[in-house]
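request received
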Amino acid sequence: MTPDLITAALLRSDRFRVEREADWQRLDAIVTAMEKGRIWRVSDEDLLALPQLYRTVASSLSIARAISLDAATLRYLEALVQRAWFVVYGPRSSLTTWLRGFLGGGWSRAVRGLGIDLVIAFVVMVAGTLVGWLLVAHDVEWYRALVPGGYADARVPGASPAALRDTLFGQSQQKGLGAFAAYLFSNNAGVSIMAFSLGFAFGVPTLLLLVQNTAILGAMLWLYHGAGLTLDFAAWICVHGTTELFAILLSGGAGLHIGRAMAFPGNRSVLSAASQAGQRAAQVMAGVVIMLVIAALLEGFARQLIDNTPGRLTVGGFMLALWCAYFFAFAKDRR
Amino acid sequence: MAATIALPTRTTRSPRDRVLITPEGVALPITLASRGSRVGALMLDFLILGTAFVLVTIALVSLAGGLVRFTGRIENGTAPAVMQFLVVVWIIMTFLVRYAWFLWFELGARGATPGKRLVGIRIAARDGGRLTAEMVIARNLLRDIELFLPIVFIASAGADSPPAWLAATAWFAMFMLLPCFNRDRLRAGDVIAGTWVVEAPRHRLEAPMSAPELPQNTEQYRFTEAELAVYGEYELQTLERVLREGREPAIESVQTTIAAKIGRDPWVPDSRVFLEAYYAQLRGRLEAGMRMGKRKADKFAGED
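response:
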């Protein structure tokens, strides 16, 4: 028998299939190659034909459902259209193109999008510092409760001003700064990611975490104030602190953003509100990780190497100005 | 309009079936991944990560050991710069293991980590739209409080401090059990990111069934309208499955049942030829009805 006769002997629905099979197989091959990450194996023609092929096969599926009872073919088409759909409508950006869009405005837009939550987190952090200060000023025993043992080497209430001064200056000869910076980064990133993800519980734990962490700052500020070293301590903190505290502020704001969206979703459903807020907050968090890398480098190297108060204030102030300009003045008009 | 598009009659239905409407208006059935396969995928990922972690750590430690032997001394108690560098590499690697593994792979074309890929599942956007980088980042950052943090707490609290241990375990259990308490099996990260985990089926295109190898053989069987009217689409698809699987005992028993049901002599020289002929003619009849808007779901349904 000739091929025509064989085709003629087929059911109408199988004829439909035989006529279109080539397109299906072609799409299948392209999608398989792309799924395996071998996009360079796909020729330019195929790549250009992909959206068209996808629509062709999707319409084949619609027709096949109306005329065919061949379960295996329907199953194949459904799986193929689903896979092609994931490729055609999948993540459009690779990690690098996403990063470019992110640094070129996406990040600062997301930060501005946090809006009121950022203000709340800021107020809470200031309040936390004040609380830390007041608690310790009221009763020195609070210092031991607030500041974990690891920090408090020479920095205990009753230490002499000279001993305290030694903790701020004269460490430029210290070795192992690189490892120290990497450790700091990994530690701080953990804290910020926790502040963010605890937003899931309606933001309450995020607030507590912010208060707890800034209370440590307040307590230490009080300690150094007692020794007349307020400005020196502020400078010591501010080298990396403007970046690090900013990052913690952002992650707290991001956590609150999710918590608030879930507690007060407005007209949206709780799930869609949570996912909208979550995606914006995730963008902020990706930036927070970058900020923490910079903060750790400043803390590990710059703070130890610049051994005087004016120099430290300059670096810290410059970083603060840089971040503020980037977040609140950059790419304001672009959507 | 899109929602009115008919879905194919499926031989099996499960509570995990969902329908996704593509922008072209095609309704795609998707199946949510089972909880078991998700746990399995996570275990596989951890297994791969753990192995890589141990191997790299061993490599770094032995490299450090070799360096110490080579330089012969450690300068007055502080490590030389190379050692520091190794420590930095190790810390960065630990960080990457924790976050970058899942991010990198889930942003790829397959939307799945190697573990998920092996199990045959992937992530997708819940609203049927595009899966974005932000979603992937959000769902993976949440893994921290769901998994890593409570495990560290449980390990550090130990058995000697029961309240802390209990609290950490309760925390852990709360997040682990979250997928059991919502319809779409979302974990906390999925809720925040707007994603879900679905099965990623792959099927081969099977040969068309109405083109038998020896068409003239099937010519000897001509079934009457009444003989074909007995069965519906469900039986047709069951018959298709039996024929495609091609297990001899199943084919023989199905052939006997059908022959008895339509009142023919159950004994035939070749059961397969009989069934293929019956399949082709039944499908031809049902598909002709379909084109006229008449469908028969199964043998219990009347002709409408």
